[in-house]
């Protein structure tokens, strides 16, 4: 990564898409899926929702880092004796896709817009759930920039952060900034929902923030507090309407953001 302040990455990046007019970067958990898989593990197999929300609010308030509290959440799952394979199975059974994502993904494929998943989750869990939801063929094609897992000989496991020196664990801005440095940068659409997306929020051209029925709209709260322009969306079907109009030249980026809601 080129920026002076960029944290060192312990994991490789896929090559950036140099000659595209538009690129979609999206969070995975709670954005492409209807429920966050790591929240699911923490709530159902770890120390539970109440304690998780206390940590989420501390992150929003700047009292702790995403990196440290997310590790704590996952440690509570391991402490309760749940192996990584068991967690994977549990997620394959319970995590569902945003109802509009398949159509959105199909649109991006036919219009030559790369879709890259930018996640603070762990790659093997994302692949397992993705294969289950959109099929092995499409799942194998989607690029994922995420964290990893370390599984120990005794069956215990922990998260391996992409950027261990960053309080974000995975600083998602590092997936956006190389595009900014291109001679003719593409328009970047970023999709997110939660505290793991705070590092990306101010760097996208068009930021879509998911609005969910469970009341956990932490990224929306953050953007509101920080005055970061964004478009609220309920599902990818709604977001597609706006993306299509920008791609077709009916809306400028500024006009799209001014909509406020998809
Ligand atoms: Mg999320």
UniProtKB/TrEMBL annotation:
GO function terms (MF aspect): phosphatase activity
Cross-referenced InterPro entries: HAD-like_hydrolase_phosphatase (IPR050849), HAD-like_sf (IPR036412), HAD_hydro_PyrdxlP_Pase-like (IPR006384), HAD_sf (IPR023214)
Pfam families per record: HAD
Coiled-coil annotated residue ranges, if any: none
Entry keywords, A to Z: Hydrolase
SUPFAM superfamilies given in the database record: HAD-like
Superkingdom assignment: Eukaryota
Keyword Hydrolase attributed: yes
Protein name: HAD-like protein
Protein source organism: Wolfiporia cocos (strain MD-104)
């Amino acid at each position: 990564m080129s920026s002076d302040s960029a944290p060192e990455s312990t994991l490789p990046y896929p090559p950036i898409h140099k000659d595209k007019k538009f690129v979609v970067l999206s969070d995975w958990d709670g954005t492409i899926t209807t429920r966050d898989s790591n929240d699911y593990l923490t709530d159902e197999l770890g120390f539970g929702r109440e304690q998780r929300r206390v940590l989420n609010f501390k992150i929003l308030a700047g009292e702790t880092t995403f990196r440290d509290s997310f590790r704590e959440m996952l440690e509570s799952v391991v402490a309760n004796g749940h192996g990584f394979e068991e967690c994977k199975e549990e997620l394959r059974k319970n995590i569902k896709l945003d109802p509009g994502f398949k159509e959105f993904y199909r649109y991006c494929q036919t219009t030559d817009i790369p879709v890259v998943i930018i996640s603070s989750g762990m790659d093997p869990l994302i692949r397992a759930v993705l294969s289950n939801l959109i099929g092995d063929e499409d799942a194998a094609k989607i690029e994922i920039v995420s964290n990893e897992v370390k599984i120990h000989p005794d069956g215990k496991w922990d998260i391996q952060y992409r950027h261990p020196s960053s309080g974000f664990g995975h600083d998602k801005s590092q997936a956006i900034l190389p595009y900014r440095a291109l001679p003719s940068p593409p328009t970047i659409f970023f999709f997110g929902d939660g505290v793991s997306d705070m590092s990306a929020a101010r760097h996208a051209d068009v930021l879509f923030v998911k609005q969910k029925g469970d009341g956990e709209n932490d990224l929306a709260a953050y953007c509101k507090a920080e005055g970061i322009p964004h478009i609220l969306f309920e599902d990818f079907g709604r977001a597609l309407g706006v993306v299509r109009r920008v791609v077709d030249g009916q809306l400028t980026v500024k006009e799209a953001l001014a909509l406020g809601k998809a």
